[in-house]
TrEMBL record:
It catalyses: D-alanyl-D-alanine + H2O = 2 D-alanine. Belongs to the peptidase M15D family. Residues 1-243 form the CN hydrolase domain. Residues 480-491 have a biased composition (Low complexity). The active site is at residue 436. Zn(2+) binds at residues 368, 375, 439. This is D-alanyl-D-alanine dipeptidase. It comes from the Bacteria. Catalyzes hydrolysis of the D-alanyl-D-alanine dipeptide. Its cofactor is Zn(2+). Its EC number is 3.4.13.22.
């Protein structure tokens, strides 16, 4: 995923003008391949505390404030999420406002709200501190939120890393480059990708330093905005955080318990004749012509039909592969691991396993072998293929990483088509495995981790076997008979 730090000169007190500027930057970020935009501290009103203190009713907002509608609409149109920092209205009459980050998803709905936990001395007369830790998951990445003075307290990034966050997003209004430079140590100490959106212009504490940027977990700074005369206008600093994606090889996936619901596998060709099915896998899936590839859990099929109804006129889903027998999954995983081993003889077993997990999953955790995953694409109503950026099943090596759902180097048509596919499937409750634009699932371990579900209702099974009794459990763990350590993507 590409993350953009947005740096622009807010108009003091003019929420409408600043929201319009933000909407434009969200649109531009989407055109440049970004999946998330982060704005600086109090960017919606500018970091000018006097007007906010004088008229909090006019200059504070809730997440659904009509004045933020242009930003939410831009998120929906571009398929881009946004972190909008603003004076947030407090709960209850007479409550002080907070310095709030409203996180809008690519569909324009609120993912979370984070209120700055540590207000600075000059802010405490106007704002109350928040109490919750800011967290959200997007595109297979767990993000942490922080605002300016929060970063002076080591427990904030320390807690973010302990909570499994990989990318740390800071909205700030720092006045000097020395303070900005300290993000390198924060990244290095806590092993986090760090993205800073820093303010510019003259604010209550003086001029903002700009210098928005991105630091790798090593502490190396790899992207930066400018300051001074060249930094007077709006800038987007783009950073690729794909290395922060939670792969199925992550122990957190293996740790998700399965509580089998007993839902049957159904053949989509007979159960949903209105769904286009690519027949190339028929008789070629190693199952003696049983058509295993065309099977799915009933709940997944229902959601696919809902997604199809949500597509724009002229487009439809094309089903390519659903269920995959564990034996076939084992073969796929072994073959791809062998390819990587031959190409990279210096890689150890753990690295081979992790790299393989971008593309093929061991059967103990594989969503396809649970009947919960589907590989699909978009076609026209006449069955013609549309531009999706890569062929379905293109590996990271073959595609140069363009198979990643949020890859930056795509044609405008491919980016639009991926956004259409994603919006329809997300709206129906499925989740994507971010290394493969075509792979979506419901009810498996990865889905449970991505959505925060306490358990996965679907576990691996054999086609034709009696389903496990509803409620039977399999607890995830590392390395035992029930679950192998980690897993991977689904080709």
């Amino acid at each position: 995923m590409i993350v953009a730090a947005a740096q622009f000169p807010s108009v003091p007190g003019d929420i409408a003008a600043n929201a319009a500027r933000m909407a434009g930057l969200v649109t531009e970020a989407g055109e440049r391949g970004a999946g998330l935009v982060v704005f600086s501290e109090l960017a919606l009103t500018h970091y000018d505390l006097g007007p906010i203190a004088a008229d909090p009713a006019a200059l504070t907002v809730l997440a659904d404030d009509p004045r933020l509608a242009p930003v939410r609409a831009a998120c929906r149109a571009a398929g881009v999420a946004a972190v909008v920092n603003a004076p947030g209205r407090g709960a209850g009459d007479g409550a002080k406002p907070t310095i709030a980050s409203f996180v809008y998803g690519p569909d324009g709905t609120l993912l979370t709200r984070y209120d700055k936990r540590h207000v600075a001395e000059g802010e405490s007369a106007v704002f109350a501190p928040g109490t919750a830790h800011g967290r959200f998951t997007l595109g297979g990445i767990r993000f942490a939120l922080a605002t300016c003075f929060d970063n002076s307290f080591a427990e904030v990034p320390e807690r973010a890393a302990a909570d499994g966050c990989r990318v740390y997003l800071s909205s700030a209004f720092h006045g000097d480059g020395e303070r900005v430079a300290q993000y390198a140590e924060l990244a290095r100490t806590h092993g986090l990708h760090v993205v800073l959106a820093n303010g510019i212009g003259i604010g209550s504490p003086g001029p903002g330093a700009g210098l928005s940027g991105y630091w790798l977990p090593s502490g190396e700074r790899v992207a930066a905005a400018s300051v001074g005369p060249d930094g007077a206008g709006a800038q987007l600093v783009l950073s690729d955080v794909r290395d922060a994606i939670t792969l199925m090889a992550d122990p957190a996936v293996a740790a998700v318990p399965v509580r089998e619901c007993g839902e049957p596998l159904v053949d989509v060709r007979s159960a949903a004749p209105g769904l286009a099915v690519d027949g190339l896998k028929a008789g070629a899936d190693g199952t003696g012509g049983e058509g295993a590839f065309a099977h799915l859990r009933e709940g997944v099929l229902r959601r696919l039909l809902v997604a199809q109804e949500a597509l724009p006129a002229g487009l439809r889903l094309q089903f390519v592969e659903g269920y995959r027998p564990p034996a076939l999954q084992r073969r796929y995983f072994a073959q791809y691991a062998d390819e990587l081993r031959a190409a990279h003889p210096d890689w150890d077993a753990a690295r081979i396993h992790r790299a393989a997990s971008r593309y093929v999953s061991p059967p103990q955790i594989a969503p396809h072998s649970a009947g919960g995953a589907v590989d699909l694409t978009l076609v026209t109503v006449d069955g013609d293929e549309v531009d999706m950026g890569t062929p379905l099943n293109a590996s990271p090596e073959e595609s140069g990483g363009a198979c990643y759902t949020a890859a930056g180097e795509l044609t405008p048509a491919a980016r639009t088509n991926r956004r259409i596919l994603s919006a329809a499937l997300r709206g129906a409750g499925l989740v994507n495995y971010p290394t493969e634009w075509w792979h979506w699932s419901y009810g498996d371990r990865y889905w449970a981790l991505a959505t925060g579900a306490e358990h996965a209702p679907y576990g691996p099974r054999e086609l034709g076997a009696e389903p496990a009794a509803p409620g039977s459990s399999e607890v995830g763990h590392d390395g035992g008979a029930a679950v192998a350590h980690g897993a991977g993507a689904e080709r």
